[in-house]
Amino acid sequence: MASNVQDVIMLLGDSITQGGFIADGFGQKLSHVYARKLDVLNRGFSGYNTTWTIPVFEQLFAQQHEQQHVPKVRILTIWFGANDACIPPSIQHVPLPEFSSNLRRIIRMVTSPTSAWYSSITKIILITPPPVNTRQRGADLASRDPPRDLDREFEVTHQYAEAVKAVGAREGVPVVDLWTILYEAAGRDEAKLSEFLYDGLHLNEKGYQFVYDDIINTINKHFPELHYDKLQSVFVGHADINFDNPAETLKLRKAVLSDR
Amino acid sequence: MASNVQDVIMLLGDSITQGGFIADGFGQKLSHVYARKLDVLNRGFSGYNTTWTIPVFEQLFAQQHEQQHVPKVRILTIWFGANDACIPPSIQHVPLPEFSSNLRRIIRMVTSPTSAWYSSITKIILITPPPVNTRQRGADLASRDPPRDLDREFEVTHQYAEAVKAVGAREGVPVVDLWTILYEAAGRDEAKLSEFLYDGLHLNEKGYQFVYDDIINTINKHFPELHYDKLQSVFVGHADINFDNPAETLKLRKAVLSDR
């Protein structure tokens, strides 16, 4: 059984989060740089929207009475919108006001002192959905057997991205505005988004690179004490072992220096 | 705080394990294919030998009285030898009999019913250290400032790999014999190991591919119920949500079907 020795970064989201452990995905990169400091937990759920995620998150995130036994979530990324923004009659569609209210609810589960899931130690980062390349997505869906109609619109997903930013601003939560970052990187040309999306919806390695970079920038700006370079490994580096009395130096430490 | 919702694969070892979350590393690949089923915990410690790992593992692995609260370790990979095989007077050197006895001690901590760390549910896989390319390693060390002498010998590391196999045979633990796999893949030509080792000691992506493949083969052969294709996701796939009553279908499940 795994003892509770490392706090964690929890990545909550849909398939774009679930897929983040491909080679050069954002989960892979975070795992690599936070090795021996924080574990990175993939809590991405392909196909899920915020409505379906709420009952799941209630089970994923420990309630206060359980928290003494389980790893502390130091960073929680919340990344939705790609499925919520599906066009009706898609079963995945969540109306925009409900999407915003769902996001707020997930955030306040963690940030509200009266919540059963309250965790004052958890730093949240919101991420906006990537822009959709509707030509690429439409072609992908049309090629399926049976062919399917286009299920997302460029401007609709943009509205959901803007809603994420508005929730972040109101709740005081930093936002990685991936929608804008990718659209700018594509020269504000929807067709050129294919450089970052492999099927018009999901990110490739180049797309994930932007997410990773901006998560690290956000950590650096808003909670620099959690940047991987500011943490110590929970067990001492090899060169710092006291070779005359190793056990003395091989005791579990806190990764976050301010916790000492 | 992270609830205990997914059991885990724990990767215990030295720098070759710690580095396994590079793009196309074995940890990255395991994380990807086990997403939503098992979490993969990197417990690799650069520079450590088995002697220094024992007191650390006593803290990493939960004792019986703690086990009800923490994730179950379903698979534990134990991968040492690369540092233990350093030549004296290297401080990392562990004599061969002591290396074997340390490995046995780590295994029996988990497998012996009288151990405080006993975990009947944990399946162990031993991995042999990769062969050393002493020309490549020697050149790397000679290029440092100040230059360092060669610290490992091809045939010595081979003896440590053989010792891992002997411990596995005696303890009834399956072994991924990476030493032999890589040496055969290099046509039994030490110089050609540079195809799999970036510095004569540590694996590159091609080297990690062999480890990943043989871990999956070993799981398939010895505990097929833990192959990722035999597990279910702990939360239901999107297509299986009951859209009329989502919460009913969004309850945490056991990933391992025989646990039900």
TrEMBL record, chains A, B:
Residues 11-209 form the SGNH hydrolase-type esterase domain. Gene3D superfamilies: SGNH hydrolase. It comes from the Eukaryota. The lineage of its organism: Eukaryota, Fungi, Dikarya, Basidiomycota, Agaricomycotina. This is SGNH hydrolase-type esterase domain-containing protein. It comes from Cerrena zonata.
